[in-house]
């Protein structure tokens, strides 16, 4: 059940955005964008509006609906959790890599351990940096560009992040070393880099539904709960499955359709079959083969058991020790036959998976080969980066310029940073 704290947050965000006279962005270009929790409730029950702090050009006030039923479902307050994914948003947003990180409240003060809740104060976690200095923090979603968390330079949270060595921690634990050169994508763009428990720095990838693996690199199913998590198309929140647009197919819409012509690979690449390495990402394929082998073993076991029974019946006059000896011999033979027959069956028969099996996808997967300057599953990302005049990295943006959620300048990201703090402050005011 959604807590009153998130209800308070919804009211605060609505007032704040109205004050900026922000233009309503296109939800078609950015599915799941929200202005408040009320927007999310129109999409599906038990969804809330979660913001992501970033200074990427053209990506201001980034907010998206995420499922929330209990503490820990989303990254907020004093509990780490999931952040939004942007696989199906317009190009300026696709490179956003979500990290659940420490944020220092800007519009509130932290309560100490003995203080009761009061207006203008928020419950915080006390953490120590490398200088052994204690700081009160809360959790919030922040973008990572491969070099640093994208706080506004000079903010207290930015300084703390540098002292906490976030860059090395994220790079070592949440960036797949098999990523293409220069890629800054965290958790394959399919999850959130987050700590396992409050107050800890043991970061790892928390994968969206439908994905698994150390870096969320494996696709398990077509199931989804985040509207923008599929490689293409959108997640039908009512059915909780990815619905693929023309040119894409497969679980999570991760494959391309070679018969779709220019509509495949976003018009920025070519679609064709590849042979994948089973050890790289094929647990489903292994399971299919294992099931086939298991069937052969069971058949052989049944035959051997029949032989055992016949032998035992024929030797009923023998003593128990002899029966046991025969049974053991037959079992030994059964094991040998199983191994031999299983191997023969596997050599002579190729397991035939169901049409929706992941093993089919792995064996005959159609993937995009992107043209220069484009990357991503559907060749819809521009990963190149450049240095800004201020010395911080920004996305080398796409040719298209889609209106960002809100029109507030990226030089004023304080609103996004203060949202988690505002959540608690408004909640306390509401309670008082």
Automatic annotation (TrEMBL):
Matching PANTHER family: EPHRIN_REC_LIKE DOMAIN-CONTAINING PROTEIN (PTHR42264), F-BOX DOMAIN-CONTAINING PROTEIN-RELATED (PTHR42264:SF3)
Compositional bias per record (Low complexity), positions renumbered to this chain: 279-359
Protein name per Swiss-Prot or TrEMBL: EGF-like domain-containing protein
UniProt KW Signal keyword: yes
UniProt xrefs under SMART domains: EGF
Signal peptide positions on this chain: 1-22
Translocase as UniProt keyword: no
Keywords tagged on the record: Disulfide bond, EGF-like domain, Signal
Cystines in this chain: 207-216, 244-253
Polar residues biased stretches: 360-378
Segments forming domain EGF-like: 177-217, 220-254
Region of interest: Disordered: 277-414
């Amino acid at each position: 059940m959604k807590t009153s704290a998130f209800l308070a947050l919804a009211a605060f965000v609505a007032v704040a955005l109205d004050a900026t006279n922000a233009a309503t962005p296109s939800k078609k270009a950015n599915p799941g964008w929200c202005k408040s929790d009320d927007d999310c409730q129109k999409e599906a029950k038990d969804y809330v509006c979660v913001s992501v702090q970033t200074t990427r050009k053209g990506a201001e006030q980034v907010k998206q609906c995420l499922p929330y039923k209990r503490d820990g479902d989303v990254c907020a307050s004093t509990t780490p959790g999931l952040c939004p994914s942007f696989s199906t948003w317009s190009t300026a947003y696709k490179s956003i890599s979500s990290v659940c990180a420490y944020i220092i409240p800007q519009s509130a003060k932290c309560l100490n351990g003995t203080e009761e809740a009061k207006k203008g104060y928020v419950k915080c976690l006390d953490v120590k940096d490398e200088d052994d200095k204690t700081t009160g923090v809360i959790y919030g979603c922040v973008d990572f560009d491969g070099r640093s968390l994208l706080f506004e330079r000079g903010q207290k949270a930015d300084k703390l992040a540098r002292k906490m060595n976030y860059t090395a921690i994220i790079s070592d634990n949440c960036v797949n070393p098999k990523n293409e050169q220069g890629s800054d994508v965290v958790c394959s763009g399919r999850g959130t880099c987050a700590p396992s428990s409050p107050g800890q720095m043991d970061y790892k990838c928390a994968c969206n539904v439908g994905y698994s693996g150390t870096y969320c690199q494996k696709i398990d199913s077509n199931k989804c709960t985040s509207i923008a998590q599929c490689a293409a198309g959108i997640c039908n929140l009512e059915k909780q499955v990815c619905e693929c647009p023309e040119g894409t197919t497969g679980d999570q819409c991760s494959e391309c359709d070679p018969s779709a012509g220019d509509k495949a690979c976003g018009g920025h690449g070519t679609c064709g079959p590849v042979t994948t390495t089973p050890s790289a990402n094929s647990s489903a394929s292994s399971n299919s083969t294992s099931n086939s082998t298991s069937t052969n073993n069971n058949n052989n076991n049944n035959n051997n058991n029949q032989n055992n029974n016949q032998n035992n019946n024929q030797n009923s006059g023998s003593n128990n020790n002899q029966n046991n000896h025969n049974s053991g011999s037959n079992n030994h033979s059964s094991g040998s036959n199983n191994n031999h027959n299983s191997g023969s069956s596997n050599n002579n028969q190729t397991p035939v998976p169901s049409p929706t099996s992941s093993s089919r996808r792995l064996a005959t997967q159609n993937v995009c080969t992107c043209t220069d300057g484009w990357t991503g599953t559907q060749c819809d990302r521009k990963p190149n980066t450049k240095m800004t005049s201020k010395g911080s990295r920004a996305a080398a943006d796409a040719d298209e310029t889609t209106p960002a959620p809100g029109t507030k300048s990226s030089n004023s990201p304080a609103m996004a940073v203060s949202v988690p703090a505002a959540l608690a402050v408004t909640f306390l005011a509401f309670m008082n």
